[in-house]
Every structure is written in structure tokens, then in C-alpha cells.
Design goal:
globular; 12 strands; two-stranded antiparallel ribbon; alpha/beta; about 25% strand; eight-stranded mixed sheet
């Protein structure tokens, strides 16, 4: 497939890029600083661009089969997440034909009990609430959008680790193990994301995954 990837220099984006290239997809990375993209492949094209510049995004997604956003805002500018969501929805919706949109989201809006979200639990770290709320706000943008979207919320803990290729998926509820823990390696998150691109199960829906 032809994949346009935003946010390829971050922890998750790097692994999504590697997984996509390893599977033989043609990937165009859009980066504010192309020199930070260190991956090399004949299937990789790197162009300069910025998701926070709405006017530039439509031309960047034209011709893509799938647009993947792993956008992460600077600290203190968490509101950009919802702004970027609106930009992506407009750009993808205006493209002809419109590509599929897959977004790296946050786990804060997932449910851990009746009417109880992760962000509302007593142990949720206060310093993470701004970015968690930003992803919740962005999810509301996608949820009501007339595009082919998937909002991929990770497990409660996501960090670099091993690529096992094994994971469990869910939709709106946090996926936990027998001990109540919820975690996934960034590598397996990337596997799950590419699996969803290749064999869709969560179109126009939120999804989540954990090891």
C-alpha cells in the first residue's frame, strides 16, 4: 500500500515506519525536519511538512491509500492534538479518492469499569492529564467524522521492548492481563497497527491492544 506517515521520528512512529517498510509498503514520511528520519529503504520517501499547518496537509495526503498519524505535541501545547484531528479529517475527506485514516491515540478515554475511564481513576498521574484529555477531545473529532477512520488507543503502558507479534485487541475497554496490568511494547503496537491496515477489523471505530 501507499502509506503517508506523520510523526515518524517519535517512539511509536519510528516503529510503525520500520514495521511498514519491513512488510514492503511504500511509505512517505512527512517530517518537519527530514534529517531526523534515519531509516533507509527504496520504499521510503521523506518530505518536509507540518501537521500544524492546515493549508499544506491536503497536498501531502493526496494519492495515499492510508494516512497514519503518530503526531505528538510539544509539552504545553496539548490542544494541538484536536486541532490536528480536524486538519486530518478535512484533508482526508477532501482527497479523491479519500484514503483511510489511522491515528495513534491515547488510553485515557478507555473504560476500566461502568462509566469510569482511565483518566478518571484515582491513580492516574496528574501530569499526564493534559495530553490524555487532548486525545479524548481528538477522539470526539474522529468519532463524528465522515471519513474512514480508526483511533488506535494503546495499553495503559507503552514503551520500547520486544517484537513478539502477539497481542490482544479490544474496542472501548482497557485490555488487561490476569493481574490487572495493561501494557504493550511499542514494537507490538506497530505490529497491531499494520495488521489493522492490512486486514481491517476496526473501521470507523476505536481500537486498543495489549500484550
Amino acid at each position: 500500500m501507499k502509506i503517508v506517515l506523520f510523526g515518524a521520528t517519535g517512539m511509536i512512529g519510528q516503529r510503525v515506519l520500520a514495521e511498514a517498510l519491513n512488510r514492503g509498503h511504500a511509505v512517505t514520511v512527512v517530517a518537519r525536519d527530514p534529517s531526523k528520519v534515519t531509516a533507509q529503504s527504496p520504499n521510503l520517501n521523506v518530505v518536509r511538512g507540518d501537521l500544524t499547518d492546515p493549508a499544506s496537509v491536503p497536498s501531502l495526503v493526496t494519492g495515499a491509500d492510508v494516512v497514519v498519524s503518530a503526531f505528538a505535541p510539544p509539552q504545553g501545547r496539548e490542544g494541538q492534538v484536536a486541532d490536528v484531528a480536524r486538519t486530518l479529517v478535512r484533508a482526508v475527506g477532501a482527497a479523491e479518492p479519500p484514503p483511510r485514516l489511522v491515528v495513534v491515540g491515547g488510553a485515557g478515554g478507555l473504560e476500566v469499569g461502568p462509566a469510569l475511564r482511565v483518566i478518571d481513576t484515582p491513580t492516574f498521574p496528574a501530569f499526564l492529564k493534559p495530553i490524555a484529555q487532548a486525545h479524548i477531545d481528538a477522539y470526539e473529532v474522529y468519532r463524528t467524522a465522515n471519513v474512514d477512520w480508526t483511533f488506535f488507543a494503546p495499553a495503559a503502558l507503552i514503551q520500547p521492548g520486544q517484537r513478539t507479534g502477539r497481542y490482544r485487541t479490544g474496542r472501548d475497554q482497557l485490555v488487561v492481563d490476569d493481574a490487572g496490568n495493561s501494557s504493550i511494547s511499542a514494537e507490538d503496537y506497530a505490529v497491531a497497527l499494520l495488521d489493522e491496515i492490512e486486514k481491517p477489523q476496526f473501521r470507523r471505530s476505536r481500537m486498543t491492544a495489549a500484550n
